Amino acid sequence: MSATADHAEERTNPAVRLGFQPEQVVQEIGFDDDVDQELREAIESVIGSDLMDEDYDDVADAVVLWFRDEDGDLTDALVDATTYIEEGGAILLLTPKTGRTGYVEPSDISEAATTAGLTAAKSVSVGKDWSGSRLATPKGAKSKR
Fold first, then answer.
1. Max Cα-Cα span within the chain
2. Alpha carbon distance 66, 140 (integer Å)
């Protein structure tokens, strides 16, 4: 693929824009009927395999965490998600956009990420109803699994 094609895919494919790469193992947490199927399919297309479900019991390269305001404590969900990923791995936190049921305030995301020891790398629109925040684990963190 040419460099121009690479850049075009980066702009049009949200999974590429979010940093997913071929052969990564990606675990999905918080799946429900309201998730963005196009984004899920885009991620699976880039990584070349299905997303692992919540029962996956090995360490993943990244976690996709669908989270709604009514899902409980975001800090707890993020801390739990860090136990599933490799050192230096990323969590893609997906929350409903402003005005949608389950919307989570950006200040709540920032506070929960900081409390969970994560660094927000970038926040992007990933679909009609969802926003994504890419959260990185510290490079020196060890997986607890």
1. 45
2. 26
